[in-house]
Structure prediction request, 500 residues.
Amino acid sequence: MKNKLSTLVVAMIPAGIALNWVANSIVEMLKLPLFLNNIGNVLNAIVLGPWWGVATAVLTNLVIGLTTRWTIIPFALVGAVVALLGYWFFKKGFFKSIPKVIAAGAITGVIASALGSAVAVYVFGGFAGAGVDILTAGLVAMGNSIAVSNLIANFPGTFLDKILTFWVVFSILRIFPVRFLPNAKKIQEGLGMNKGKKKDDKAA
Amino acid sequence: MNSMYVQGNSFLHQLDPRTKILFVFSIILFVFLFYDPMFQFLVTVSLLPIVFLSGLTTPYLKTVKFMFLLVFLIITVHGLYNPMGDVTKVTWQLTENLSFKHDALIYGAVMSFRILSIGTATLLFVMSTHPSDLANALVKWKVPHAVAFMILSTFQLIPIIGREAKVIMEAQQARCLDVKANMIQRVKHLIPLFAPLFITSFMRVHQMSQVLECRGFSSTGPKTSLREMTIGFRDYAFLTAIALFALAAITLRAVVGGTLLPITDFVLMSALIGIWIVCSIYFFDFLWKSVRKKVV
Prediction:
């Protein structure tokens, strides 16, 4: 059993990384101002376990850093924290109804944007090599400090992004075919899906 | 997704990936040892001949573009607005309220050249190393085989899942999924797009884990590889050179301290204007290309 899980993990983490990457192109096709680039991290954290989610986050940033832009590597920290928070909220039963999922996403969004700004300020002096940097520069010119303007510029995007990431993962796990999930029972319990069935049983 | 590997047969291509990883780390060490824009600039410039000799000039110039936007913003915005150090020491008075301050400009210049030199070293590494060789090197460094495999298989998986995403997109559009609806509707469309994608990738994961199992992935014992890399004379020579440089840099740091030469206004101004010039060249190149695209 342990071996089976390990090859599953070995196959699942690249898929998570690829989903992180491909999410960007889907969002681009829909012309939404989002990234959803943590979707694979959260999914892997819930399905495989928190540390595999962290591994997905780190490897995602490493692979993207090695292939397109190396400045993304330090932001692995943010992805890892989002994965851990995703798992924690799942464990605490936040993935049971849409309002709770949105609340969890909002909290994660606040933490992630604060952390992202901290990384950007300490490593790159407040910029990250993305389009939002121009907004940051404008806010600095208006007289805000660099950390504050980076936070203001990045907050709305990150905040919405994390809420929607959690929402998409939640909605999809609910409709997921059971036979593909490695620990379906636990996940369905976490999503609050078994309750309904039990009531049905009693009624029958 | 293709990795940025560019085929070649240069000195750098023939080095062992491990040597190149050490090279990148030593560059990171060099630029963080000193707080001196001149030194960082010299490190960056000394890497350029290697770029040229490895035959990577064109791909390098193409990919370094986005770093220049970052560097341009850092040096300009920090120089103008960063309230660090002695604010009264002005290097370049633009208008009454707007001036480039000396200390802030030093910070901006150091940051910029740090990013450029680390970026150049990393690009050299990535462009001259085949992903399989990277995985091999990691395995030789006792990184678990599974981790190396994960990195390697991601390179193959991303184009496959990307293609799948496109097919799903088109299939859903054929079923009247409106991509031009209002914002809330488009957010709701995320589910019909992501759900099939997640499910197909899970199916693929299951298949892949079975295939891995069939081919004895989880068997213990040494694993062989198609591409073999060995450390040779070249690597030792290169490593010795790096070690000598590192030794010299550390001694200098211990003796002289963080800054080597007194930083004059002239140095800072030339760093600022140099970065502006390179940025504007890239910008005009971009403009020229987009105009030509529209005309042709």
